[in-house]
Amino acid sequence: MDFYSFLIQSLNALQYGLLLFLVASGLTLVFGIMGIINLAHGSFYMIGAYLAFALTSLTGNFFVAILLGIPLALAFGAALEALLFAHLYKRDHLEQVLLTYGLILIFEEVRSLLLGDDVHGIPVPEIFAASIPLNDTLSYPVYRLVISAVCIVLAVGLYWLIQRTRLGMMIRAGSHDRDMVQSLGIDINRIYRTVFALGVALAALAGMLAAPISSVFPGMGSQVLIISFVIVVIGGIGSVWGALIAALIIGFADTFGKVLLPDFAGLIVYLVMAVVLLWRPEGILKKG
Amino acid sequence: MNPTSQRLILPLLLAALLAFPSFGSDFYVELVAKTLVLAIFAMSLDLLVGFTGLVSFGHAAYFGIAAYAVAMITPKYDPASLWLALPAAIIAAGLAAFVIGLFVLRTKGIYFIMVTLAFAQMVFFLFHDTNLGGGSDGVNINFKPDAAIAGWAPFDLNEPGQLYYFIVAALVAVYGVLKLVLRSPFGRVLIGIRSNEHRMLSLGYATFYYKLAAFTLAGALAGVAGFLYAVLSGFVTPELLAWHQSGNVLLMVILGGMGNLVGAIAGAFAFTAMQEAFGAWTKHWQLAMGLAIVAAVLFLPGGLSAIPARLKRAMTGEEK
């Protein structure tokens, strides 16, 4: 592998890992703070991608689609929390698994009813459609760099939100002791709703950003869901920074696995997880 | 269900199963046979979820490994011997469960759910991406296993009727094995682990090895179901190992009420009935299924087998 191919693969791995981080960060927050295992989290990624597709065809502009899509995803997340997930906090994990499994079936069928089962594509927006030439034959698409940049900005924003704001303080306190936070006069239910809506919006945004580079197809949610599970396990449940590290590890392992060992590409991610679990059964960064 | 009524109802249910082929059409005999295979699968998972308190979300892996073992052991132009294929399938599934169990049992709670899922995905990709078992297309099993011992054949699995009774016999056998295990001191320890693992540890039980044994046994029994599924359908695809399959079997166990073997069987029947009823009604049957699941979680905690007790409470006006 020469230097430029290596550079391209590294940038791809970085972009893929950062995108996965957007999905996994919401998942790990919902796990860590609300104690909810949400199998339907991958569906939010799928919904985001289809939202981008539907809104782009309606408005004719990808950026308008994203600007409309984010508040829609936030509202959708808040409504879902109020209607369904709020009833799950005191239930055991098994019932959470069951309910969210039922949700996957519902989301997939509703998608199929509304938009059909065809594979769709969205053109890369024109401003970012260019490629940066690396040498005579190889070049790198600008849009992938844009995705990475957006993800990095969001990761920094998330760090600031959780570590530096009053809301973040309440979120962190809520993950330690729900009852104590409530008795201090903080409405924990509103914090849960905010966190959940935030998680849904992050996953949906990841789906919207990914739509122009990966096609929009029916099974895309479950694929991302399981990889995100692996990331949350490797990173340690509830740890956003663990999720970031783990997402990058998985991004690189998967991308380079596909290049170097194409026959076993699907397996490598899970092998990485097995090794990490042998080393640290509770993930790289245990929640603290 | 209390023990006395269970003692009365079980023989009746078995008699109904045995008599069914004489009045059911071929289509329904095959459907019931398929459901019984799922019932064995659900009972094997119930040993983990219901009795040991281990929520495995990757149980399809062992089901699928056993099915693939049948496909691999069957030569292209000849049937395999039943007495070779059945143990091979069970051992393959049990061995896989043992090895995976060594990893996954190091984790607990949510981790356990996700890690079992992830390992099952690993097995899925092993069969889906490599040419080990025909890749994503799957493999045909051209011949059903041959039951002959030294030239004498006690029964013939090519006969749908005989295959049906073979599956009923397997169901009874698996039920019996699980009942014996649960009644033994070993089973008591498993139930103890479900209620309070720390206490069992401090009583001096090495709970890890008990859980590993239960995980291996559950995998091997799922292997029985996987074997029967492969024989019944004559076709094996990676879909058998997919996580939807793990989700469905978990659904059966919960639908029937956990920690109740008869409940697991009822759950398998309820699942098939829902699938058939919704499927006849609309091609988007999964939507109805999803809504039913969500409604069941919200309004019916305890599953189907809790209904009699709830009705009784409602009728006598007793408080919980």
UniProtKB/TrEMBL annotation, chain A:
Subcellular location field: Cell membrane
Gene Ontology CC annotation, any one: plasma membrane
One Pfam family from the record: BPD_transp_2
GO MF annotation list: transmembrane transporter activity
Top-level lineage group: Bacteria
Main location: membrane
Record membrane topology: Multi-pass membrane protein
InterPro entries attached to this UniProt entry: ABC_transp_permease, BCAA_transport_permease
Transmembrane stretches, start-end: 13-37, 142-162, 191-213, 225-252, 259-279
GO biological process: amino acid transport
Keywords: Amino-acid transport, Cell membrane, Membrane, Transmembrane, Transmembrane helix, Transport
PANTHER family: ABC TRANSPORTER ATP-BINDING PROTEIN, BRANCHED-CHAIN AMINO ACID TRANSPORT SYSTEM PERMEASE PROTEIN LIVH
Family per record: Belongs to the binding-protein-dependent transport system permease family. LivHM subfamily.
Protein name, per record: Branched-chain amino acid ABC transporter permease
From TrEMBL, chain B:
Keyword Flavoprotein belongs to the record: no
Membrane topology of the entry: Multi-pass membrane protein
Keywords from the named record: Cell membrane, Membrane, Transmembrane, Transmembrane helix
Matches recorded under PANTHER family: ABC TRANSPORTER ATP-BINDING PROTEIN (PTHR30482:SF17), HIGH-AFFINITY BRANCHED-CHAIN AMINO ACID TRANSPORT SYSTEM PERMEASE (PTHR30482)
GO cellular component, as recorded: plasma membrane
Cell compartment(s), UniProt: Cell membrane
Name of the protein described by the UniProt record: Branched-chain amino acid ABC transporter permease
Single Gene Ontology MF annotation: branched-chain amino acid transmembrane transporter activity
Residues that span the membrane, as ranges: 83-105, 110-127, 163-182, 203-229, 249-273, 285-307
Record has Membrane as a keyword: yes
